Structures are given as C-alpha cells and as structure tokens.
Structure to design on (186 residues):
C-alpha cells in the first residue's frame, strides 16, 4: 500500500502557473521516485536546432539507419547528459525498467544500437532531467505545481511533443484551458 504514493511509471503534467518558466506545459515521464527523491525525463518540449544526428556526431558514431529525430528537453539538471526513453524490447548495460511501461537508458551503447538498427523499436532522446530531493516532489504535489496521470506509452511515442501536455490532461478527462493558474484558499 505504501508504494501507491510513488509516481514511477506515471506522467507529471505542469499545472498552469507553475511559477517556473522551464516547466511551463511540461510533461515529465517519471522514472524513479521513492523516499530518497525522484527523477523524471521531460518529453514535452524539443530542443530547437538539435537532432539525433548532432548527438551521434558528438560521439563520432555514424548515423547508420537512425533518423535525425528531435532531441527533447529532459530537464534543467545536467543538461549535457543524455537519456533515451524506449520500448522494453531492448536492454543495455544500464537499462532500467520503469514499472514495466517503458525503459530508460543513459549510455552510449543505446545510441550505437539505434544507429545500427539494432536498438529498441520505439524511442525518444532527451538531454537533462528533472530531479527532486527527498520529500520535495511530495510537497510540490500538495501545492499548485503538478498533476499526475497514469502512463500511456502512446503519449510518449504516438503524440507530437507539442501536444503531449494537452493530450495528457485530455486523457484524464480535463480540458487544460479551464484550469486556473493558481489555487485559492477556503
């Protein structure tokens, strides 16, 4: 019963008026959350002018069969560090299963596998991550910051990045245009 309060394998949607421009209309795929803290990868915004081929070039990996897919803003923490959220049909040296819903990899072996056509069937690349210290996310969930929704892999792979935020709310039966940018007190 205790694990129900943790958000691993869910999405966090930024509430209007979150107060941090880096997270306006953010969609965070939660990859880790326990009593020691939380980590998630942003999937709701692309980094303009940066594609997968640029990342492969930085590591001197040939493009192979890899499309020049967009790279996402994973979050403000360690923005030079790369992550790949992907389907569970591939695993590498550091791959983490996220609640059986998707996997997370953060080493160069997945980039090589994607370029060679031997990687996961579905994936997105992100730079940086969102991180919370012990109890920090729990506090933000109680204030007007985040709304969590059950994970649907279609939100990651089948929905364009600029539509994920509204699609996440729509999946929960909420029209985000009707949300107030702040909470009141009674």
């Amino acid at each position: 019963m205790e694990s129900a309060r943790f958000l691993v394998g869910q999405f966090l949607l930024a509430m209007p008026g979150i107060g941090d421009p880096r997270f306006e209309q953010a969609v965070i795929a939660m990859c880790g959350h326990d009593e020691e803290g939380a980590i998630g990868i942003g999937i709701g915004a692309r980094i303009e002018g940066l594609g997968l081929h640029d990342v492969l070039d930085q590591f001197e990996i040939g493009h192979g069969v890899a499309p020049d897919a967009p790279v996402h803003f994973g979050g403000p923490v360690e923005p030079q560090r790369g992550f790949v959220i992907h389907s569970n049909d591939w695993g590498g040296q550091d791959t983490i299963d996220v609640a059986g819903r998707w996997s997370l990899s953060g080493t160069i072996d997945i980039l090589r596998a994607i370029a060679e056509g031997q990687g996961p069937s579905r994936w997105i690349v992100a730079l940086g991550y969102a991180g919370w210290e012990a109890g920090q996310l729990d506090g933000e969930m109680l204030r007007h910051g985040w709304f969590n929704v059950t994970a649907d892999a279609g939100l990651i792979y089948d929905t364009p990045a600029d539509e994920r935020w509204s699609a996440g709310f729509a999946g929960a039966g909420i029209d985000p245009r009707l949300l107030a940018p702040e909470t009141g007190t009674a």
